[in-house]
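Priority: medium. Attachment 1 of 2:
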């Protein structure tokens, strides 16, 4: 008897978005498209204890669930069913006893499986300094060599600007064009002083100093990043132009910078804290100074990053519609001068990172472990899909402080 179908169909309202194959060889679902392989009953146990996105992610990260075929297409179909459960036939209540009997026959009942080791375990008040440091450390304080495998040589871990469709045009070109666009918008040059809030691996700070002669104060909360950027600055002889500070953005203090930038860092600030963040950025600028924020956005119905992202990638992250961010900047006293949507550019950027991850996957496993490598594969595939389908966006917002 096939016990698999009665167990998995209730998870999707009766209609299966992809084909499932269990450890005992039983199968259910459509013949075409990707196949989800359940390598042990533990996978179903996880999904039943934690229905939806997080249970599926835990099973995948643990290696108890594999995907044959296009992972992104599998995620697309699963998301379609979860986002619109009424699209398919609903399983009648009379079918639930059969599902329970099938689950027992497969040996599914059991205690709640422990969360994978790579899942974030946080404590303390949300967006307290200690908790924020732990959140950033969870995602960024891994060997820089891992990021070197998937990012471009400039180590830009943010959306690129793709200005060309020629085959010879690479991720490195697109990231250079993004950095040039930022520097031009901020009118950087010799004698200009840039505050880079959330400097990442140093892509903007080093580019602004090396290519434009600007002075840069680069700030990051991640210790691994601060050490890496300092080494890059020393190796390139930019010590006279770039200062790296390993501290919380709230501790920067007042300044008189000609320009400030926050490249995909504002998502980590928090909803309640964001107005104070805007006011602080205003206070860092001299009269007439410019601010550029590059930041991800979402709609009102899903302001966070989703349960998987919150558990494995960026806990406590908050995104909002871009209009709300613009309003907060204006209420802080900044004049918004330009807003540029870059959603399609992030699809190409993330797919380039994913291609590099797949190309170097054995090396990635050696560096960060198989479980973390699977987290990144799922994260990149799912993120590219979210931007492709318009569930997430990203914008560059240029603003300025009044000259008087």
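Attachment 2 of 2:
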């Amino acid at each position: 008897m096939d016990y698999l179908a009665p167990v998995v169909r209730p998870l999707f309202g009766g209609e299966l978005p992809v084909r499932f194959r269990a450890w005992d060889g039983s199968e259910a679902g459509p013949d075409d498209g990707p196949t989800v392989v359940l390598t042990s009953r533990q996978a179903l146990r996880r999904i039943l204890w934690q229905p939806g996105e997080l249970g599926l992610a835990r099973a995948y990260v643990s290696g108890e669930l594999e995907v044959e075929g296009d992972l992104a297409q599998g995620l697309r179909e699963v998301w379609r069913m979860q986002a619109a459960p009424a699209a398919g036939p609903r399983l009648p209540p009379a079918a639930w006893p059969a599902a329970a009997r099938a689950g027992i026959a497969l040996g599914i009942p059991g205690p709640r499986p422990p969360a994978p080791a790579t899942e974030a375990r946080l404590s303390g008040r949300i967006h307290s300094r200690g908790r924020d440091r732990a959140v950033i450390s969870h995602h960024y304080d891994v060997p820089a060599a891992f990021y070197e495998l998937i990012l471009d040589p400039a180590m830009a871990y943010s959306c690129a600007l793709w200005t060309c469709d020629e085959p010879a045009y690479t991720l490195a070109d697109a990231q250079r064009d993004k950095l040039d666009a930022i520097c031009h918008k901020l009118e950087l040059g010799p004698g200009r002083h840039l505050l880079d809030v959330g400097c990442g691996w140093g892509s903007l700070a080093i580019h602004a100093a090396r290519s434009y002669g600007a002075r840069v104060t680069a700030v990051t909360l991640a210790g691994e990043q601060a050490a890496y950027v300092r080494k890059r600055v020393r190796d390139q002889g930019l010590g006279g132009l770039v200062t790296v500070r390993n501290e919380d953005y709230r501790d920067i203090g007042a300044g008189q910078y000609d320009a400030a930038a926050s490249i995909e860092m504002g998502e980590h600030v928090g909803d309640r804290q964001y107005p104070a963040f805007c006011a602080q950025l205003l206070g860092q600028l001299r009269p007439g100074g410019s601010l550029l924020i590059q930041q991800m956005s979402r709609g009102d119905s899903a302001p966070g990053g989703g349960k998987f992202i919150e558990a494995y990638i960026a806990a406590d992250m908050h995104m909002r519609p871009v209009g709300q961010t613009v309003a907060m900047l204006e209420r802080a006293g900044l004049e918004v001068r330009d807003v540029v949507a870059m959603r399609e550019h992030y699809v190409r950027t993330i797919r380039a990172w994913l291609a590099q991850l797949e190309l170097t996957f054995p090396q990635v496993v050696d560096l960060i472990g198989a479980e973390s490598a699977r987290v990144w594969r799922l994260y990149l595939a799912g993120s590219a899909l979210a931007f492709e389908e318009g569930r997430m966006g990203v914008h560059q917002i240029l603003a300025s402080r009044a000259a008087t």
